[in-house]
Amino acid sequence: MKPVKAADNSSLRDKLLVGQFGTTSPQLSALSDPLEPVQMVRTLDELRPYEHNPRVTKNEKYEEIKESIRNRGLDSPPPITRRPGEQHFIVSNGGNTRLTALNELWQETRDEKYFKIHCLFKPWPKRGDIVALTGHMAENDIRGNLLWIERCLGVAKAKEFYKEEDGGKDISQSELSRRLATDGYPIDRSHISRMEQTLLHLFPFIPNVLWNGMGVDGVRTLLTFRSNAEKAWNKLVQEKGVPANGIDFDQVFSNTLCVYDEEPGGYVFNHFKDDLLGAMTDALRENGVSYELILFEIEVAQDPRQARPLATVAPTSTPETQPPSIVPGQVQETHIPPSTQHPLPPAGNTGGRAGSATVGKSPTPPQEQVLKQVPVLTAVNNEPGSTVVSIPVQAGGLAPVSDIWAIYPQQDSIAAIRNLADLLALEIATWAGVIDFMRSTQDQGLGFTLRRPETFTSAASETTWQLLASLSGNSPAEEIQPVAPDDLAELLIQHLPDDLVIKAFRMIRLARRAKELTGEK
Question: If you classify domain 38-146 with CATH, what class do you get?
Answer without folding.
Answer: alpha beta
